[in-house]
Specification:
This protein is α/β, with parallel strands linked by helices. The protein has two domains: 147 residues, NAD(P)-binding Rossmann-like Domain (Rossmann fold), CATH 3.40.50.720; 201 residues, Dihydrodipicolinate Reductase, domain 2, CATH 3.30.360. The protein is built from ten helices and 15 strands. The strands form two sheets. A nine-stranded mixed sheet has the order 14-13-12-11-7-10-9-8-15. A six-stranded parallel sheet has the order 3-2-1-4-5-6, with helices on both faces.
Amino acid sequence: MSKVYSVLVVGMGKRGQHHASAFQANPQFKVAGVCDIDASRLEAAAAKYGAQEYGTDAAALAAKIKPDVFCFCTLPNIRYDMVKIGVECGAKLIAYEKPIALSTSEGLKIMDLVRKKKVKTVVSHQHRYGVHYQKVKEIIASGAIGRVHTVYGHSTGWMAHMMTHMIDYAMWYNDYADAEWVMAQAAGKGKFTDIHSSPDYIAGFIQFKNGVRGIIETGAGAPDVPEVDYWWRKCRIGAQGTEGFAEVLTGGGWRAITRDSNGPISGEGCMNYDNDMPPYIADMAKWLDDDKAVHPCNGENAYKGFEVMQALCRSVIEHGQVALPLADGPAELEGLKNAISDKPVLLSMEANRKEYPA
């Protein structure tokens, strides 16, 4: 009989409820507790998910429940504190939202802590479970586009929301080859006031050790994806090879040209939490059951992408190429604020003006 794992979910906003619902629907998990600083939202969530324990103090609740899985979907300014709570309560697996941290220094502390304690971590890059993302991976892995020489990803959403998604899927399409160096530029300071603090636009190049080149853009200057109407899903990620290309549109299916396709081919698909969350959660159970069944969104792969993002930020600050892996250093967001001009960002399309006003 399959083991049932207890879960504490911290943060009962939209993403926290996505997680709690998916855990509740999986017979290998039991939502033992929920936590939120909003008492009214907390009581409603406890009733909805059948949580016997609930409260506003995550550390106290975790110490009482001692969950197998500590899942938190909180604002990005308390990542290390939450991970520390998960480790200290004895959780076997910690699941949390991207980005991993707000600086390389914090990211290194998190990874050092979970590695020393041998705690499994999963970072929420769950878009990859979409059938359109999977189809593109299948085409690339089959060799149908020949030798891959370029991977790419762009989104009009800003860096802290979207960049590690773009990097993670592009690196997935390149079999998570290590990055050797990056170079980037950025513009616009408007989004530094957002809780997901970011430059308005950042774009850069990644040189991978296997010779593949990566191109990543997020924000006001990223290209439009006119086939997609919903602004947050205007993302395009893919790979170019010697005999074709294959790419996914987050809100608009997939398309490709391969050596055998005799022209363009395409298919449907759209980012959908109802479809993407169940397998994302199921893979946590598989990894808890079997150490060899490593979760596709495991923290080690996610850290590779996080490190690339931070290196891109350092490149803007340092005005040149940055080698990886990264050592500890000054907080990148503060450095970006000082390095970027006060000039307003230029837009790739008028629809961006709502989020990036002049």
